[in-house]
């Protein structure tokens, strides 16, 4: 297995007023480990405001050679347009429906990620829709955490059988080693793990090195 990499998840409901504190934390976290991507989970707003927010965030992430992937649960507008005009590297959606349409619209090598799966069948549907990665785990928009054992089981199953890469998300530091042990190509870190403590990213990197 190739060396696993990290993905950082921002808090749900990130708004423009949060960026002054968030962007320095992202840069510090990206500098502390091998971060492949940052999933920016935005609060719904109008497309113009979201695009402006993404334009601010993208350089901070991409300067560290990480991809910025935009998510916005509950947003009824055009997320692909927001990501493209804002200079992001892709979008992340938590519903398999409509993936094929999104795949067709994401040009220039932009990333399509998806997650929120509670069953193997739903994950397979997403894989068939053309997603570039599947994410198992991660906090729900209401702040609730999924069952970590179920997350590990689904991530290990996917990583063993399918070629499409996956992210196994750790919500606590104690879950990092188990997430790495699934064989997932990426281990996701919820914001509580890195937002106030960039050193946690370095510790996570050590856990990945031990699991590889």
From TrEMBL:
InterPro entries, per database record: Aldolase_TIM (IPR013785), ThiamineP_synth_sf (IPR036206), ThiamineP_synth_TenI (IPR022998)
Database matches in SUPFAM superfamilies: Thiamin phosphate synthase (SSF51391)
Protein name: Thiamine-phosphate synthase
Natural source organism: Methylobacterium hispanicum
Top-level lineage group: Bacteria
GO BP of this protein: thiamine biosynthetic process
Span of domain Thiamine phosphate synthase/TenI: 20-192
One protein family per Pfam: TMP-TENI
């Amino acid at each position: 297995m190739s060396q696993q990499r990290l993905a950082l998840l921002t808090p749900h409901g990130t708004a423009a007023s949060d960026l002054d504190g968030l962007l320095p934390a992202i840069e510090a976290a990206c500098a502390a480990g091998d971060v492949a991507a940052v999933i920016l989970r935005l609060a719904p707003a109008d497309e113009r405001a979201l695009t402006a927010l993404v334009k601010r965030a993208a350089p901070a992430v991409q300067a560290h050679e990480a991809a910025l992937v935009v998510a916005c649960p509950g947003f009824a507008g055009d997320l692909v347009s927001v990501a493209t005009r804002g200079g992001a590297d892709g979008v992340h959606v938590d519903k398999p429906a409509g993936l094929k349409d999104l795949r067709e619209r994401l040009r220039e090598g932009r990333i399509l990620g998806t997650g929120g799966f509670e069953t193997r069948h739903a994950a397979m549907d997403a894989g068939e829709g053309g997603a570039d990665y599947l994410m198992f785990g991660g906090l729900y928009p209401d702040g609730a955490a999924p069952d970590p054992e179920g997350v590990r089981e689904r991530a290990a199953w996917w990583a063993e059988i399918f070629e499409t890469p996956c992210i196994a998300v750790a919500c606590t530091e104690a879950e990092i080693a188990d997430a790495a042990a699934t064989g997932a190509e990426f281990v996701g870190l919820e914001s509580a793990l890195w937002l106030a403590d960039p050193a946690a990213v370095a510790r996570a990197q050590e856990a990945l090195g031990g699991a590889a």
